[in-house]
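To: structure desk
From: M.T.
Subject: fold request, one chain
Message: Could you run this one when you get a chance? Sequence is below, nothing fancy, just the single chain.
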Amino acid sequence: MCYFTACNMITAHTMPKLIPLFLALLFVGVLAHVALADSHDAQFSDIKSDEHVVFFPTTAWFNAFKQQWHVPVHGWIYEPEDSTVRKALFASALENKFDLSADAATDANFTERLNLLIADNERGKQIVISVAGRQFVLAPSSANGHFEGLLIIPEPDVDKHIDGDRIVYAAVTGPEESRSFAGEVQFVKPVGLSVISDIDDTVKISNVTNRKSLLDHTFLLDFRAVPGMAELYGQWSAQGVSFHFVSSSPWQLYAPLREFLDASGFPFAAFNLKVVRFRDETLFDLFKKGTETKPAIIEGILQTYPERKFVLVGDSGEQDPEVYAALMHKYPGQVLKAYIRNVTDETAGNERFSTVFDGICTESWLLFDDPRSLVLPD
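Reply: Done. Structure tokens follow.
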């Protein structure tokens, strides 16, 4: 999703690029209306006892002209599913199509992830959240159970409640609700350095070039971190870098992915995953080419923070080199580096990379094997 930035950042040079963003914002304003709740008329989230809410981590941006923070909220409300019939059907499809089957060692992973994938999305649910001392009523959830909102919060209110560079917020629930549903947003300054990173085969071993192995790592096996990447990102985070994960993994697997990334020591990051329905044949379209999904998402992030500089980190297994090189051509002053993890045993001088990065300074991109060879741009 694309967002606009502070009015005083707009110049004659940037206006042509920002016009689509203003139109997008107007469109979002219609679809994701947010109302400030009346404190004298208590409102509660529409969450039944058999439903669950998850909030996805986001990053906010600052409007210096109005001294306001723009805070995107994104979540999913669903009814957890535990169907032996659906599990059997799904397992049969994996076995027949890809010769994959769960065993005693992988059944727990398969059950957890499958239950998320086949969960019942809840449409038309209105969530009320409390953030920075205020309450906001979000637009009703859509058919896929997702709900979004763009909150406008004055800088003084943020300053009163921020812890470091983040604020934790929560759904407002009724007195009979014992559960709590919390989310987190990072407040990213207009100027600085950010990393946009892929997940599969960049920070998590997935073997994307082998469909059977990829599905095995997605549905059955324990998630495993790429050696050295958590340490690298942790070091960069300590230097003030903010992170965005842009991945083809489905939103339904956010919770186990986040748990894995936290346990592996990766720093906080905003998430941009793929919307996929698991009730029809689009199930096996899960891993569409990155050239079809990633460019628009990454451009939205770049345009949200036009004064920040970016490093793009991906792998050679799919289309990250092609996507990143195109963005470097389009945003040469903003995208400073592209780092590509070599999972295909290629060389930087082969035809693919020579063609993809033609016209881009050789110091601006690197095909790497060891994360310790990566450094932040000056």
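Reply (cont.): The chain has two domains: 7-80+120-187, 191-373. Let me know if you need anything else for the meeting.
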